Amino acid sequence: MKKVHEVCKSIGVTRRTLHYYDEIGLLSPTVRTESGYRLYDDMAVEKLFKILLLSELGYSLNDIQEMMNNPDVDLRDSIGNQIKILNKKKARLENLIGYANTIKLTGIIPLNFKEYGDITFEEFIEKSKNTYNMNMFTNNTEGINNPLDSKLIQKAEELLTLPEKEWYEYETSELLEILEMAKNILSVTDFNEIRTNNELMDEFMKFVDKDVSSKEVQEHVEKLYDYMNKDKDHPMSLGNFSLIGKTFAAGGDVDMLFTSSLGKETTDYIAKAIQVYCDNFTVEQREEEGGRR
User: Fold this and answer.
1) Which of 26, 39, 120, 154 satisfies CB 3.0 to 4.6 Å to 21 for a cystine?
2) Where in the chain is the domain with CATH 1.10.1660.10?
3) Least confident stretch, 177-181, 225-229, 241-245
4) Where is the HTH merR-type domain (predicted)?
5) What is the CATH code of the structural domain delimited by 2-69?
C-alpha cells in the first residue's frame, strides 16, 4: 500500500489531482485508515496510470469514467474514434502553425476587413487562415499538411539562425529566391525575372535620398512591377503588389533578410515607394472611370 505522497512522488501527480479523482468517484483509495490516511494498492495505481494515459489521449474525465464503469465499451472502437478527433485537432494546429509562420515571414497580421466585408470574427479567421497560410507550400496528402516541411521556412530559418554579420555574405539573388518561394502566399506570379536583374533591387539604394513620389523613383518601381508581370496573362493586382511592398518593412523574416543585404533604410524606402505607386495607380484608375462616366 502507498500513501498519497508516495503515489504523487512515484507517478508525478499532485495531491489535488488524487483528491479530485476521489471526489468525483473516478479513483478512490483502496483503504482509508482510522487516522485519515488514503492508501492505494497496486491495482489502484495501475488504474491511475490508465486514467492518465486516456487523459493524455484527449479523453475527458467523464468519458474515462464511463469507460471504467462500462465493461461493454469496445476499447478498439473507442480509440479509433479518438484518433479521428486527434487528427482533426492536428489538422487545425497545422493550419494555425502555417498561419503563424506566414505572419512571421511577412511581418503582417492580415486585418483587411474591407476584403471580407461585414463578417464575424469566426468567419474572418476561417477565411484568413485558409488564404494567408504557409501550408500552401506543402504537398497536400489526405488533407493534412505540415508547414514545417516548407522549403521557404527551412531556407528562411537557416539564414535567420546565422550570426547577423554572416547575413551580408548572402547575395541579393539568394534573398530574392526566398521571396520567390513566397509567391503563392503573396500571389506573386514569378520572381525569376527579378532574380536575373538584381540591379532593380540594388538601385533602390541610390534613391534613398530622393522623394519616394518623384518621377524617377516611381518609374523604377514601375520597372519592378513590370518585371513581375512580364509575359503573364493575368497581371498581379495592385493589392498584392502593395502587400509585397509592406513585407519589406513589416519586421518579418522577409524584412530582416532583405535588410541584411540592402540595409534598413533601403527596405523601408522600397516599402514606401511601392505604396505610393499603388496609391497613385488607384487614383488614376478612379479618375479614368470617372471620365468614362
Assistant:
1) 26
2) 2-69
3) 177-181
4) 1-70
5) 1.10.1660.10
